[in-house]
Amino acid sequence: MLAVHCRHGRQLPRGAVVAGTARRPGPANSGGDANSGRLVNDGLPVGRRVAYWRQRRKMSQQVFADRLGKSKSWVDKVERGVRRLDKWSVLREVADALDVDPDLLLGEATPPRPADEATADVEPIRAALTRYPGLLPTTADQAPTDPAGYRTRLDHADAVYQHARYPALLRLLPDLLDDAHDRCLPADLRVQAYRLTTQVMVKLGAPELAWLAADRGLTVATGTDDPLLEAVAATPFGQALRAAGRQRAAFETTITAAHQVAPLTDEPGTTAGRSACATLLVQAALAAAEHGDPSATRDLLDDAIVLTEPDGPARTAVDAARVTATATLGDHRTAIDLHQTLTVRPQWPALPIEHRAAYLLDVAGAYLAAGDAPGAARTLRAADRLAPPEIRVRPAGLAVLTETLTRSPAPDPHLLALAEAAGLHGAW
């Protein structure tokens, strides 16, 4: 019953420390400033640049360590990203030993990787979102947007997203966003346009644009007094908040919306209401996992499970979220075991291509965190077969790919070819 499944009014502990600004384990979680090893420009972390320039200087790790007055183990951990160069003084010493400018190690003096199609197309999205609807002038000869035609265009854009064709989607979105300013359009269509925008902006590492789009969609939805539409709009809002590192706000927003669409009663509710509630509970669970609360994560996912049909794709989606949450909480081996059970089920292919590929990217991070670079490589190849842009376009995908190659004693030739196609270059 919904009284059980959406019972959580709990708060995240205020003393807890947010686990990070991204939801992915391992290399995709890199945060902080440039000194802490985040990916900039060419996709290489600082440690890999250190390794690259050490090899260019024909130095072994031991010789390099001797020059620095450090141990060989220290050098190895820096190059693998286990130890961060988070002090400018240490970074300067490393750069001096390599006879390079520190900015070169940070990537700021490195020619940027050629902008891919997706990156170039983010700016029109920014421009479309900057045009605030209420300030747009209207003219007497301006024809209203045809709802039926707009719905067809949105359905096409949604299919493009589900097939992870992000560059193509970015070409469609500016016009859809411009037309979404037409308040004569049904609210659900406008919410869907903002939802798609939010989701692809999260994918491409533009959390501020994701937040703006999600806020627009939620504003439209809350103006309708339709709890179900509000729940639909709250889901991407929760995703945007999580991408921005605001796990507590994401948790509270999604839990509140879940209670709105499925109040604490014994009524079974509608199919759409149960589906929306399950989706919101998943978002809340992922936020709780990122915040380091395993109890809330487990309870929320258990509630979401009961709201879904045993053999339906929604149940598979919740099970996939459990794998991601388990890895986020640091239990990487259990996450891998759950993953291996999940992907052999007959329901697995029922998930959209984008969903499966993004999930596999999470799992690749779990393999890396468990010290299994070959497992990460296999998983990345599987994700690339499903949806190449997940690995070749997304910053998170490029990060996991780079780290997998970095940690592989004998890099997979298929991954090397993938890195070349993605525009990554480095000494693997």
From TrEMBL:
One of its GO terms (molecular function) is DNA binding. Residues 50-105 form the HTH cro/C1-type domain. It comes from the Bacteria. This is Transcriptional regulator, contains XRE-family HTH domain. Pfam families: HTH_31 (PF13560). SUPFAM superfamilies: lambda repressor-like DNA-binding domains. Residues 15-40 are annotated as: Disordered. CDD domains: HTH_XRE.
